[in-house]
Write a structure and sequence with these properties.
Number of domains: 1
Shape: elongated
Order of helices and strands: HH
Strand content: under 5%
Number of helices: 2
Distance between the termini: 10 Å
């Protein structure tokens, strides 16, 4: 019963992190801004870092099962 929330949270974090990394990669490859009004390299780096952190959080949640 206690593993249900961990599975849900791990799935949500992993999906969001993967989608954020995919979206950032596509925007950078097409030369489009990741965040309007922010330096392109800084925006891509911070968004990529956030994506990796969400993926790691998802893996951590799955490790708690």
């Amino acid at each position: 019963m206690e593993s249900g929330p961990a599975i849900f949270a791990g799935t949500a974090f992993a999906l969001f992190g993967g989608a954020l990394l995919l979206w950032t990669t596509v925007r950078v490859r097409h030369g489009e801004p990741v965040v309007l009004g922010v330096a392109p390299r800084a925006a891509a780096a911070l968004t990529g870092l956030a994506g990796v952190l969400f993926l790691l959080l998802g893996v951590w949640c799955f490790g708690r099962i």
